[in-house]
Amino acid sequence: SGRWATAMAIIKEFEEKCATPIGKLKQVADAMTVEMHAGLASEGGSKLKMLISYVDNLPTGNEKGLYYALDLGGTNFRVLRVQLGGKDGGIINQEFAELSIPSDLMIGTSEALFDYIAAELAKFVAQEGQDFQLPPGRQRELGFTFSFPVMQSSIDSGTLIRWTKGFSIDDAVGQDVVAELTRAVEKQGLDMRVSALVNDTVGTLAGGRYTNKDVVAAVILGTGTNAAYVERAHAIPKWHGLLPKSGEMVINMEWGNFRSSHIPLTEYDHSLDTESLNPGEQIFEKIISGMYLGEIVRRVLCRIAEEAFLFGDTVPPKLKVPFILRTPHMSAMHHDTSSDLKVVGSILKDILEISNTSLKARKVVVQLCNIVSTRGARLSAAGIFGLIKKLGRDTLKDGEKQRTVVALDGGLYEHYLEYSKCMENTLKELLGQEVSESVIIEHSNDGSGIGAALLAASHSQYL
Ligand code: ADP
Ligand code: MG
């Protein structure tokens, strides 16, 4: 009937607009390397901030003692303690706790957010058992993983540039986040020093390097997306400090804010962006990361419901609620292998309150999930390819058997298998058969927490 023809036409147009042929991905990757150079050349020289992390040495394996980490990044925050064994000792013991951040705190005041975090940290420290040993007279030390753009002035200080991922706490912008945390920690009567402030990508890179010497970059695909890598210090023109002894500096790219005319954007992406908390910002993030994929699907579905009456004569009211369809719902539907698409049916019923959906309508939903996740996954592969190009590891050097390992973490990568499979296949396609054999994507399960603790250890006041 006419309804179906309209529905198919909307989907077809959307699919065409989302297309990411390999040539386009190569243009995106090249634009990424161009922007990397520009961001390294001067402050404000690019959409890519290419932030200096003040991490000029990655973990060696000699780190020793009890260290804490606190990871504030998106939907959840984690606290962790780890007993490091020193040379060849590895990780002797570790414990963590994970809590969700009450949504009112994400848009409240800086004081309220940090008070809450410090209170949970204090509770966790109070549960420290005999398996963890702090030498007498020593202060506990913490690595603070903070996954928002921060302009650092040292390894243990830095001011918040802006919020992303649904956070919006105006009075925290421009403040030193370590000072904020320290004040809240003192208010709890907790004797603890923040020794390292690290982005989650930098933490993941550090954690990855601890277990694998060939790790040179880290990428997060979670609520948001970002990447960090090891740069040669003399290739950072905007760095006017002393050249580090190692000759290296870890750069936090803040690639979520990347944008390029080669990135395929649709009307749905434009309206999502306009109505977001940070319009015009984080465009790459808004089409590839977990916070937004489900929302894009919802927007297209809504249009099909309005114009092609996909779910009957009226638009189901829940379908109009922004962010009601989360990416985990989307991936559950996308992964539905039952012949009658049972999972799709029950998510449509439970989340969107649309009952008795036809198999045909369910297939439309799966098709949309596939279009949106494929575009995101292929563009994330293009980003990684651009990064590998910047490292000069997209070609094989004569007689060299160098391995390039990229540590990957984040709930999207970990749980959305259609997405991660597509990302990895696309990266292979971009690298070519031969080079792709030397490039390894390694899942770093919560490497960022361990990484922050390791960096707290290597920047301890007792060294
Ligand atoms: P964060 O990025 O908030 O630090 P995570 O790395 O744990 O935290 O990623 C959480 C994000 O991962 C969620 O916001 C969601 O978008 C995505 N995610 C979690 N579970 C799934 C899933 N089953 N399928 C798809 N995406 C998921
Ligand atoms: Mg995280």
UniProtKB/TrEMBL annotation:
Keyword vocabulary terms for this entry: ATP-binding, Glycolysis, Kinase, Membrane, Mitochondrion, Mitochondrion outer membrane, Nucleotide-binding, Transferase
Any one biological process term the GO annotation gives: glycolytic process
One GO MF term: glucokinase activity
Ranges for domain Hexokinase N-terminal: 11-210
EC numbers: 2.7.1.-
Topology term for the membrane: Single-pass membrane protein
Record carries keyword Cell membrane: no
Cellular compartments per GO CC: cytosol; mitochondrial outer membrane
Stored Pfam families: Hexokinase_1, Hexokinase_2
Class of this enzyme: transferase
UniProt-listed InterPro entries: ATPase_NBD, Hexokinase, Hexokinase_BS, Hexokinase_C, Hexokinase_N
Pathway connected to this protein: Carbohydrate metabolism; hexose metabolism; Carbohydrate degradation; glycolysis; D-glyceraldehyde 3-phosphate and glycerone phosphate from D-glucose: step 1/4
Domain annotation Hexokinase C-terminal: ranges: 217-457
Localization per Swiss-Prot or TrEMBL: Mitochondrion outer membrane
Family to which the UniProt record says this protein belongs: Belongs to the hexokinase family.
Annotated protein name in UniProt: Phosphotransferase
